[in-house]
Every structure is written in C-alpha cells, then in structure tokens.
Amino acid sequence: MKPLNLFALLLFLGGAVWALTRSDRSVREIQATYYSAMSPFLRSGSKMETQARAFLEETRHSKALEIELQETREQLGRLRLIESRFRIIEDENKQLRHALAFKKATHFDVVAASVIRRNPTTWWQTVEIDAGSKRGIGTQLSVLSNEGLVGKIDRIDNGGDRSSVLLLTDEKCQVAARVEGSTEVGILNGQRGGFEGDPMLRLRFLSANASVRPGQRVFTTGRGGIFQPNILLGTIESVEKGALDSEARVRPAVNFANLGAVFVVLSTES
After folding, report:
1. Per the confidence metrics, is the pTM higher than 0.85?
2. 111-137, pLDDT tens digit by residue?
3. Which phi and psi angles does 130 have, rounded to 5°?
4. What residue spans define the domains of the chain?
5. b/e string for 42-57 if b means 16 or more Cβ within 10 A?
C-alpha cells in the first residue's frame, strides 16, 4: 500500500476511534456540527437537482412544441396549395362563364377555343389554341375574347386541330381603328420588343391636331376585310402630337397576360 493511502487510512481509523470513545453528548455535538457544515451544500445540491429536473422538463416540452410547429407548418403548406388550386379553378370557371355569356350575346358565328400553349420568348406575339381546320378555321380570321379583339389566325397546324394566333400586341398585327366620339381614324398595332409591365398599343397616323384625349375608347373600323367593325381594341392612355400627324398610346382591352377562352370568328350575321 502506498504511504499516502496508509496515512489516510490510519487518520480515518483514528478519527473513528476518537468519535466512538466520546460521550453521547459529544457525539451529538459532532453530528450537529457536521450537519451544520454540510447543510448549505445539501440545500445547494437540492436546488441544483430541482433546476436540472425543470430544465429537462422544459427541454421535453420544447421538443414537443417543435414537433407540433413542424406539423402546423406542413398543414399550412397543404392548405396554401389547396387554396392556390381553388383560385385557379375559380378563375377558369369565371372565364368560362364570361365566355358562355359572350357566345350567347355575340352577333358573330364563332368557334370557341382555349389557349393551350405560349412560348415565353414570344409571349406577347403569338399563342396556340386547340381549334383548327377540322372545325372550319382558316388563316386571317379574327380572334376575340369577351373583352375585345385578341388578334388573328396566322397559321393552321397540319393535324387540323390546332392554330396559331398572331396577337394584337405584336407589331405585325395592324388594325384599322377609330376613336369613339371623334372623326379620328388610324392604324393600331403592338410595339416591338419586350415589356417590363403590361403591353401597350400604338395608334398612328391621326391628324396633326387630333381632338382625342385619354380615356376615350378605340374600336375597329371594319376596313381591310379581316376584322369586323366595332370591336373594342382598348382605351387611350396618352397622345403625342407631331408636325404632320399624331400618335396615341392605347391600353389593350384584353388582358393578354392571362388569356384563356377565345373565339374565332367564322362569319358575321347578315
């Protein structure tokens, strides 16, 4: 045995013998002194144990809350997805109701169709619809929505069940137009290039002193044999007058960013 361990053992035995040879009163005094000395440590240990138990309980509660929060987030995500799908269906139903009302009220012989494809690079130039020569559609026929003029058919697919529509917002789609409440007529077409916001139209070749103002509506004249007369094109936003003629910026009547149901005009009623 190591000397240090032997010394500690002898010291302990000596203390034990000394304590056992004392009187009961002395033993009690020794015990009281010992408990008095140890009491702060015992209370501190009990307090630490209570705090440790509270911490463990709080940790378990936090984990339960974290699991509950994760479940709530997942449920919220599913609800948002359902709400998004519901809004899409609601918008489609709204468009179909408007389309049905338009078809009943129109004086034209029309074929209803839906926009099925749009290319991001030609978003404001062309769209593809699910109707073609099998339904009597040919090129150079005007295309409408319940809001106004959309454009004209510029190509029929070989299968006969699809067509390409040249939109009014394309600069190549030119329409003879008149300004409501005035004698002004001109040529309306889209603008070249992309658009940071909603597309705008140009109404060119108005007279130099054109008596037009923002808020007036613009309609087709019917000249040219493609577009029927009195179809709404848009509303004047601003007018710029020049030395020889004037030009107006026109906001389209049709929401070209969200095209759904359209109508191809086959012929007009006599």
Report:
1. no
2. 989 999 999 889 999 999 999 999 999
3. -95, 45
4. 1-105, 109-268
5. eeeeeeeeeeeeeeee
